[in-house]
Amino acid sequence: xxxxxxxxxxxxxxxxxxxxxxxxxxxxxxxxxxxxxxxxxxxxxxxxxxxxxxxxxxxxxxxxxxxxxxxxxxxxxxxxxxxxxxxxxxxxxxxxxxxxxxxxxxxxxxxxxxxxxxxxxxxxxxxxxxxxxxxxxxxxxxxxxxxxxxxxxxxxx
Length: 157
Description:
The protein is mainly alpha-helical and about 160 residues long. It has helices at about 1-25, 50-70, 85-120, 130-155, and strands at about 30-35, 40-45. The chain has a two-stranded antiparallel sheet with strand order 1-2. A hairpin with a 5-residue loop joins strand 1 and strand 2. The longest helix has about 40 residues, at about 85-120.
């Protein structure tokens, strides 16, 4: 159930990441932010078609992680060392972790697209001071989640 919710949220982020530039592209000024500093303020500007580079990278990442998750059954675990329960846990855990990574990454790309559009229109100053710390917190939380589940697997032995 959790994987379906994560997958649905990731798909919504994916759609937003693509639809935002499609809707706003015709009205964007010729120069838009193409890079942000650590403080979230744009420090480089370029042609408005640069928004498609970010969108393309996000789409490739999303689709790649989805394909990886769909082919998780092809992973070769050392069956001699794993019980049936451990093997199932590995697959479920790996699939869920990929869904979380996908959700975090597509959400970040969608927000950066949104912020880029808003900065280009002059309604926002940048990504915000909170963006990078929040992103780092989410990634650190994912690492902690991974370590906790690795301990659960050890206990199954």
